[in-house]
Amino acid sequence: MKTQPARKTKQRDALREVLERSERPLSVNELLEAAAKRVDGLGVATVYRTVGALLGDGAIEAVEIPGEPVRYERANKGHHHHFQCEKCARVFDIAGCLENLRTLVPPKFRIRTHDVTLYGLCAACAR
Amino acid sequence: MKTQPARKTKQRDALREVLERSERPLSVNELLEAAAKRVDGLGVATVYRTVGALLGDGAIEAVEIPGEPVRYERANKGHHHHFQCEKCARVFDIAGCLENLRTLVPPKFRIRTHDVTLYGLCAACAR
DNA sequence: GCCTAGATGAGAATAGTGTATCATTATCAG
DNA sequence: CTGATAATGATACACTATTCTCATCTAGGC
pLDDT tens for residues A61-92? Predict the structure, then answer.
């Protein structure tokens, strides 16, 4: 998988912009759907290719939740975690993080990263 | 998916026992591999069926980590989370949990559950 | 405007998981 | 011991997510 040699196209612009403007992580399908409104006939392959390139550039990051398709979001949001609504299945960012994680593991274990995902109902679905 | 009408077989015993004795969550393949040592010719279908029944009984619980096959572990361990070694890919239990999660989400959101997964090197791989 | 290599889109191909089918085997009540 | 029927195992099938192929299109240097 090599870096895309760069050429400005409307499909890439559309995808980049959708990702840039979204306040929550989007799956490939959500991306396709949203970007297809701007570029007619947009295909999945292009979405995958562009997402791959953006990941390579470090412009976006993957958000993985078990049993769910991978979602992507802007990389410049700082450390945060996610919340998935059990009703509408959308994923939201949540600010902040727990910092006493180190204390949880046995002494010889080395922690490099961590994921925290909360599940429940989002504001819209909770009423 | 209905409850299995119960009949004692060596394959079920083997699977139940492997799960019972394992100190860490096991995937279907790990289960198959481990139980096949006791019951020759054990098939995947039986593993899936048995796991399904045990889940239904509440005897085991699913442990899901993004991009990884689902693992299963005894349900009577109490609340805890998991650690995955980035080298050997095994998953370990970690005791304890962060309790100030409620403070992280916007006020209208309702939290029902949460997952915390740490990644790094296990004691064996860290040296 | 022309040309070429990069980019695209449609669909085929792949990979990983889990379920359904069905002939055979084995449990266990009587 | 025997028979009814649940359980098994091999395999086909279904699904989803992602990659590949390749003919066609197009951005952009000249």
Answer: 999 998 899 999 999 998 899 999 988 888 99
